[in-house]
TrEMBL record:
SMART domains named in the record: ZnF_C2HC
Keywords: Metal-binding, mRNA processing, Zinc, Zinc-finger
Domain CCHC-type: 406-422
Name of the protein this chain belongs to: Gag-pol polyprotein
Matches recorded under Pfam families: Retrotrans_gag, zf-CCHC
Keyword check for Zinc-finger: yes
Compositional bias annotation for Basic and acidic residues: 71-87, 361-370
InterPro entries found in the cross-reference section: Retrotrans_gag_dom (IPR005162), RTL1-rel (IPR032567), Znf_CCHC (IPR001878), Znf_CCHC_sf (IPR036875)
Amino acid sequence: MSGGTLKTQLAEATARMAEMERQHMEELERIRAAAVEEAAEENRRLHAAAQESNAQILRLQDELSTALQTQREREARLRSTEEEQARTLHPPTAAATPTVPTNRTTDLDYLRTPRGPSSTTEGPPPLRRASTFYEPSPFLPRNDEETPPPRTGHRKPVVRKPDPYDGTKSEWRKFRTSVRLNLIARRDDFRDDVDRVIFIATHLDGQPLGWFDREFFANPQPRWASDVQLFMDALEEEWGDKGRAEEAMVELRYLEQGADTVTEFYDRFQTLCADARVDPETRVDDFRHKLREQLQNDLVTRGPVEPRNLREWYQLAKRFETRRLERQAEKEAKARFRQPPAGRSSSTNAPKAGGGNQDGKSGKTDKDGGGRQAQQGSRGRSGAAPTRNGSTQPTSTGTATPAAKRCYECQQLGHIARECPQRNAKVAAHIEELEESEEDDAVLSKN
């Protein structure tokens, strides 16, 4: 092949590679452009969704403002009518009825300002303060005058906002806890309960949001509009797990420690008390009586010092449980070391093979007493003891055969009383009981 042909082929191959590289770069550029366009489209979609949500919030705020304005106008007309009637029925010197202040700055301030009493009609009952069950006292102030000044130089904890609550009863407890955490962590962001109610309402979705819209506009000034506790009570009554408190109370009534440790039982007890809306400190006696009987007996012999609260009772019961577990481990270790060797137990618990006759029968003597006389004659001297069939059997001088040994403790053949396994076990158990009683006396004396 000539050099010109090679150069031509090389040039063609180079051109093909360049063309392939160009196509590859064009494909990469097309993919990148498609990805950028897709990301931009997703951003536009999210932005549109956010704008729609903001628009919905603004519409709700506008409707709220309109409803409040309508309520104020209606009350103003009613008050004007009452004043006109009062001027007609009473002298002009009569005391004027207080009027609603007109220097409010926002619509929400109307909820924060108490209404003046009417001259002829009774107003709604006064709003109560939030109870300590929901309002996280002492973290939140009890009234607006106690609101602390903004803190400087302090970094707030990062708390995720509550997920929108759509009415799922199994998610109510999670939503309520998340709301409480936000009210605690963001307490400087809320001026009063009106702001807190608005914050919670913006995290409702689905049917709860429809309930809020329906209930609020059915009564433009609901009682829970300026009381976060009343608002959460109304939410829980309508959408919360209402039967959980009764179920937890029943479970608490029949709760027993059983095979649980003291720590596991204490955690279950605390959880059920929280679900049942019960203060655990009022159930100290229940906690003690639901422990295992051994721990109850230990708590009776605790000493003169009386625990002051549930936490101290739990710590005391945990110490007794730990002490019992340590003793049990010591007993098991001692039992492993006190077990007799396998060869000794087999040789002392069963008579030797020589204790019987050669024909397989037992070593009992005949009724005529001949065998007894033969055994008595063999004591105290060496030699061979005659057997029933006339053969002789060697015996030791001055001692009985192992088969003839009888224990007066268990009445078994093959060992004597000092070697009896039953007697040794009883003695070991008695020694352990004495050691435990001495340890208990030492512990009580320290307490």
